[in-house]
Amino acid sequence: MVKISALASLPFLVSTLLVVPSISQADIQAVSCLVGPSKSATLSSGVPGLLETIDVQRGEEVEREQVLFSLNSNVEEASLALESARVAFAQRTLQRNQRLIERGILSESERDEMDTELSIARLQADLAEARIADRIIQAPFPGIISSLESEEGEYIDNTPVMQLVQIDPLELELVLPLSAFGRFSVGDVIDIELVEPVGESMPAEITSIDRFIDPSSGTFVIYLALNNTDNVIPPGINCRLPTSA
Q1: Signal sequence: where (predicted)?
Q2: Residues whose CB is less than 8 angstroms from the CB of residue 89 and which lie 6 or more positions away in sequence, other chains included
Q3: Residue range(s) of every CATH 1.10.287.470 domain in the chain
Q4: CATH number of 74-133
């Protein structure tokens, strides 16, 4: 690779990078175009434990915050019951001594001690509830379960359990030659031709454009969002720019 130093070469570089042949969109030939999900997440648990239930099946459509799977929480539920009992006891102790407090028979330090014990018991109960919630995994976004990686009864520790993908909207990855650089802008809506089994052209909105050229191939990538309300367009198919404007 030839390196041209600093300021002396700047005009040459500017003219080389910014002068793009004037061509119509019909003349642009995409190097490749692939339809994929707009989001994809491999779901696991933040805490280790026994995988007790898987509440969905592969291919099932799920809503945001829908329960997907849960770990055994017998120990955590017992801890919550214990802390809840401590909260109830601290409340009864405070209630029994309320008249003594109002009459000034109990000192401020004694009253403060009872208040503190109740507050600590409540915090411990909240902590126990949070630990139970950590063992119940919900969908971070609406989508479709594309695969199941674990089975009920397995012990998991940062182990993939399932894959969740969002296919509405879909994301299109359009690889274009250098000659098309600067021809498109974020927010533009262009027609994209989808191959079989769809076999038709649909409008897609440009969401982002790579600002760097791949020097080895002389290409750059444009990403587009394609509505797929009824989930009829399968991810994984190819696409292309229409041959006519």
Answers
A1: 1-26
A2: 121
A3: 74-133
A4: 1.10.287.470
Fold of the domain built from segment(s) 21-40+164-240? Elongation Factor Tu (Ef-tu); domain 3 (2.40.30)
Provide Rg for the chain, Cα atoms.
Answer: 30
Give the whole-angstrom CA distance, residue 43 versus residue 163: 6
pLDDT truncated to tens, each residue of the chain (245 aa)?
333 333 343 343 333 333 333 345 556 777 899 999 999 999 999 999 999 999 999 999 999 999 999 999 999 999 999 999 999 998 888 887 877 777 777 777 777 788 899 999 999 999 999 999 999 999 999 999 999 999 999 999 999 999 999 999 999 999 999 989 999 999 999 999 999 888 889 999 999 999 999 999 999 999 999 999 988 999 999 999 887 54
Q: In whole angstroms, what is the distance from residue 96 CA to residue 99 CA? A: 7
Say how far apart CA 168 and CA 70 lie, in whole Å.
26
Beta strand extents in 45-195 (DSSP E only): 49-54, 61-62, 67-71, 136-138, 143-148, 155-156, 162-177, 189-194
